[in-house]
Every structure is written in structure tokens, then in C-alpha cells.
Design brief:
- The chain is an alpha/beta fold.
- It has 2 domains: about 130 residues, Flavodoxin domain (Rossmann fold), CATH 3.40.50.360; about 240 residues, no CATH class.
- The protein contains 15 helices and 14 strands.
- The chain has a 7-stranded parallel beta sheet, with helices on both faces.
- Strand 1 and strand 2 form a beta hairpin.
- Helix 1 packs across helix 5 and helix 6 crosses helix 14.
Length: about 400
């Protein structure tokens, strides 16, 4: 990769936040705090007519610490400049409390109870007024220089085929190496797609503490897969040429590159310093003893974004159409046939590495240029199409990586 792209000489203008962070988008985030207020929140978002207004929420009536932490992390996300919280009036997660957190972060914010505003129509009208005022206020957001050393980027797999481990994830891994060398931060997840490769992970631990975290996280994920009798492999993977979870795992780990792994993050946890990090998104074993390890790709993307990722890579050999709220999704495939078939949805074709059209270094430079363009404001295919999916489920997960002693 050309040195100028990751040495700090290639810069763009980001958005300065009052908490000191820098964003690559300047969004209003509309949050619903219970399923009963989701329609109003989504209508406010839709009727705003702005691509810079996103909606997320948690549907549960009862409290869930994992979901609340995730909501708070998205409020604090550097791509978010303003927050409107919409509640019904009788749920556990209180909108005023979330709005107060946004205010403490120095962000434009407001909240409402639908029950107190008179129902659906009055609440939508009030919400639209507040969102429009926030959009006007965000026009005055200070701009600040950003470079690759400022970026936090996440990596996720979805709809993998044989090309994912030979091209798509390999290009991402090489890019992550360059990003870390530039002083930036890379986060990869899907510990349930490292089956059989724990020694490869622990050998790359940056410290003894990181090694213990990696070993424990792997053991926990493997035990969880066994307990629910489900591994992260699907019929689509088999149709794409992958035969076992171990084979899929080899491709999935390729997206982490070759740098030392600084440690393990939990969902909504921020990296304490730059470098390469593994994100653990599997439940901890004290409560939930059912379900599946990764409900869907958007849950994984939201997990990464909750850790502060400015944008996320979704590597998909067979193709995918999703985007995400809060942060852009850059969809990468190592299968040129998939890219041609789904060019309206796919952002980057890494298949040239397999066909011999270009070298891995040349392809990595192309990806670097695309990241620079998107960080500068160019919209991804999913953003252009209006894809803003999200998933915030019930889950039980400790804040700490290693288990606390209960003796």
C-alpha cells in the first residue's frame, strides 16, 4: 500500500464531538425504548426525509443490561450528533435517562412519552419538529482533520463461500495490518467461527493477559455452541463450497490479518488503545442456556458499531444486501461472479486476487482508497439504497472478559 495513504498525509474532514471524539457521519439518532413506541419512532425517521436520521431501539418491556449498555454506546458513538428518545410511558428503559446521557456527551437531545403527548399523531408531529431542529443545529458542527490513525473499523463475515477465505477476508486482513501500522484500530468478531484455531489465536496474543482472555473466550464459545447444539455454519456455506465449521473458521480468521491481538472486547466495550482486538459477542453462561450464537449478520454489525467502529466491513462470498444504522457498511466479496450479479448492493470486488488480475497489495490499496472515500462522506451502496437495518436482542453478557471469582 502506498505509504501516503496510511502515514497521516492522507486526511479528510470529520465531525468534532464535544467529548473529544471524531465522526465520519453527522446523524440524528431516534431511539425507541420499547416495541410499543417503535412505530412512532420509525415514522418520525421516515417522514423526516433525511438520510442523516437513523432509527434503532430495543423492543423488550423488561430490563436487559446488555441491551441498555448497547443503546448507551450508540448514543455516545462519534457518528451521532443528536439523539431523540421515544418512549411509551410504562417501560423499564426510561427515555429521559438516555437523553440525559446524550446531554452529558454534549449532544443535541430531547425525549418524549407517547402517553403524555396524546398518542400517535401528536407524538409524530412533535418528534418531527424536534428532529428538524436537530438537523439545523448539526449544520454548525465543527469540522476537524482525520486520518487513518483516527479510524476504528470492524470486520464481519456473512454468507461465506470458498472465496471468502481465499480473497475477501484476506484483503480485509491485509488492510487491517496496514490500519494498525498507521495507528488505527481494527476489531474482528465471530469467536464461534474460530473453531479448531485457538492455538493460532493465542500465539498472536500481545500479552499474557491477552492470551488468557483469548483462551477463555474461545473455550466459552465452544462450550456454548455445544450446549445449544448449533455452530455458525449454514446450508448457504455448504452450497458455496465450504464443508465444515473448521474450514469456514480458517477463512473467517483470515480477516484478522497478522498483527498481535491486544485483547478481547465485550459488546459495547471501547478499545483502551489502538491496535487489533477480538470482539466476544456470545452470551455468558450464567443465564441464557438456549438460542443461537449469532442471530443474524446485523446483530454482529451492531455489536461492532457499539465498540465505536466508524464503519464496518461485511465480507460475503455469496452476497448480502444489508446495511446498518449509525455506521456505513462496506460490503466486500471475493467472488467476482457475485459482484457482477449483485453490483447494485456490493461495494468492493476482491476477486481479482484469485483471477490473477492484480496482486494482494494492489487490491489492498484499492480498498484503502474506498475507505478514504467513504470516510470523506461518499455513501456506501447500502446507504444509497436506504438500508439501515439493526438488531438489539435480549442477551446476557458480563462486562469483564475473564470470569469474576465468586468464592
Amino acid at each position: 500500500m502506498n505509504r501516503e495513504y496510511y502515514s497521516g498525509t492522507k486526511t479528510w474532514k470529520g465531525y468534532a464531538r464535544k467529548n473529544g471524539s471524531k465522526g465520519i457521519r453527522n446523524k440524528v439518532l431516534v431511539i425507541y425504548t420499547v416495541e410499543c413506541s417503535s412505530f412512532v419512532a420509525k415514522e418520525i425517521t421516515r417522514l423526516s426525509g433525511s438520510s442523516d436520521v437513523d432509527c434503532i431501539g430495543f423492543g423488550g418491556c423488561t430490563d436487559n443490561e446488555y441491551a441498555v449498555r448497547l443503546l448507551i454506546s450508540l448514543i455516545r458513538h462519534p457518528n451521532i450528533g443528536a439523539v431523540l428518545v421515544v418512549g411509551l410511558g410504562c417501560e423499564y428503559v426510561q427515555p429521559q435517562w438516555l437523553s440525559d446521557i446524550a446531554r452529558e456527551e454534549g449532544k443535541e437531545t430531547s425525549w418524549m412519552f407517547i402517553q403524555e403527548e396524546g398518542g400517535t399523531k401528536p407524538s409524530i408531529e412533535l418528534g418531527l419538529q424536534k428532529v428538524r431542529e436537530m438537523l439545523i443545529a448539526l449544520e454548525d458542527t465543527p469540522r476537524v482533520d482525520m486520518g487513518f490513525g483516527d479510524l476504528v473499523i470492524g470486520g464481519e463475515c456473512g454468507g461465506s463461500d470458498y472465496t471468502s477465505g481465499l480473497a475477501g477476508n484476506v484483503v480485509v486482513g491485509r488492510f487491517f495490518d496496514k490500519l494498525v501500522e498507521a495507528g488505527g484500530t481494527a476489531i474482528f468478531e465471530e469467536i464461534v467461527e474460530t473453531v479448531g484455531l485457538v492455538e493460532l489465536l493465542t500465539k498472536r496474543a500481545a500479552s499474557e493477559k491477552a492470551k488468557k482472555e483469548l483462551q477463555y473466550t474461545y473455550d466459552k464459545a465452544l462450550a456454548y455452541c455445544k450446549s445449544v447444539r448449533q455452530y455458525s455454519v449454514s446450508p448457504g456455506n455448504f452450497a458455496g463450497g465450504l464443508s465444515t465449521i473448521e474450514e469456514k473458521s480458517m477463512g473467517a480468521v483470515a480477516k484478522s490479518g497478522t498483527k498481535l491481538i491486544e485483547g478481547v472486547l465485550k459488546v459495547s466495550g471501547k478499545p483502551p488503545h489502538s491496535g487489533l482486538w477480538l470482539l466476544d459477542s456470545t452470551p455468558d453462561p450464567y443465564w441464557m442456556q438456549f438460542g443461537i450464537t449469532n442471530p443474524n449478520d446485523n446483530e454482529g454489525l451492531m455489536d461492532l458499531i457499539s465498540c465505536g467502529c466508524h464503519l464496518v466491513f461485511l465480507v460475503t462470498g455469496r452476497g448480502n444486501v444489508v446495511g446498518s444504522a449509525v455506521a456505513p457498511v462496506l460490503k466486500i466479496t471475493g467472488n467476482s461472479d457475485t459482484y457482477k450479479r449483485m453490483e447494485g448492493d456490493m461495494d468492493f470486488d476482491g476477486g481479482g486476487v484469485l483471477s490473477g488480475l492484480c496482486s494482494l497489495e494492489e487490491m489492498t490499496l484499492d480498498l484503502c482508497k474506498m475507505v478514504l472515500s467513504m470516510a470523506s462522506g461518499h455513501r456506501s451502496k447500502s446507504e444509497e439504497l436506504g438500508h439501515k437495518e439493526y438488531c438489539i436482542p435480549y442477551k446476557y453478557q458480563d462486562k469483564e472478559v475473564l470470569p469474576r471469582c465468586h468464592c
